[in-house]
Amino acid sequence: MLKALLKTTFGLSLLSAVGLSSFLGANPASAFSFNSDGSIGVGLTDIGKSFQVSFDGNVATQNVSDLTSLATFTFQGFENIGSFTQAKFDIDLKNTSTGAIASRTSALGFDTDLTLQNASVATGGLFSNAILNGSLPNQFGALDVCFTDGNNCQGGQNGGAASGQNSQTFSAKLAFNQGATQFALSNFGVRYQSISGTNLGTSGTGKGTVKPPRDPNKIPEPGMAIAIALTSLGVLSASRKSKQSETEQQVAV
């Protein structure tokens, strides 16, 4: 009985030590800055990391619950080009409309807190054009930049991510004044066209909400580490009392 208790104590003590050392010594993963106003800050420590934006759907200023899209932004870093510093993203876009709704996400855009000097897209991706200072219809309003196959943020007759298809990717480059090392994105929006399954209309827009990613390597909460330590100490104390009681009984005999 005593040996089993001691083995349990040792195991819990080791676990608590590992948990506390992880809590005290590990560096938390840096993954963007998720701000209270809905914007997301991007900097040098975020290269190679991703975040997602989920979009709702709105047609004729009315919400359509099954009209949705999802974009995954992967930050690829900064590059100095002439007098500009370019920030590059690989953007994976999927039209996630469900139920009776079918549609095509024909444009995606957002605002930046730094002044955009230019924007472009790599060839061979989902979208081919970058439009500065455009706007989405359906009372959505102005955007600093949008990406589409059309000539404006209203979208085009063809192109985009259609419902029922796999996600598609394009590379977007944002040019700021040289020396930029951090910026923020906000006011994410998409344009929907070729909508079917609703009598409200065949085109609409969607407002984006940034989704903070789950960190699979997240360290234990402080309370958990402390609870483990207290549990191991309690078991250790009980084992000492048991051993002391056993010794006293042997002496009494």
Summarize the structure in words.
With 253 residues, this protein is of the alpha+beta class. The chain has two domains: 2-27 and 223-252; 33-211, no CATH class. 22% of the residues lie in helices and 42% in strands. It contains two helices and 15 strands. The protein has helices spanning 2-25, 222-252, and strands spanning 33-34, 40-43, 50-55, 58-59, 62-63, 69-81, 84-95, 102-112, 118-121, 129-136, 141-148, 161-162, 168-177, 182-196, 204-211. Strands 1, 2, 3, 6, 7, 8, 9, 10, 11, 12, 13, 14 and 15 form a 13-stranded antiparallel beta sheet that branches. Strands 4-5 form a two-stranded antiparallel sheet. A hairpin with a 2-residue loop joins β6 and β7. α1 (2-25) packs antiparallel against α2 (222-252). The longest helix has 31 residues, at 222-252.
Q: What's the order of the H and E elements?
A: HEEEEEEEEEEEEEEEH
What is the total number of structural domains? Answer: 2
Q: Helical segment tally?
A: 2
Q: What is the arithmetic mean of pLDDT?
A: 82
Gyration radius, rounded: 27 Å
Q: What structural category characterises the helix and strand content?
A: alpha+beta
- Main β-sheet, in a few words? 13 strands, antiparallel
Terminal CA distance: 20 Å
Helix content: 10-25%
Number of strands: 15
Strand fraction band?
A: 35-45%
Q: Which residues sit in consecutive blocks of at least 5 with pLDDT less than 50?
A: 1-30, 218-233
What would the principal axes of the Cα set say about the shape?
Answer: globular
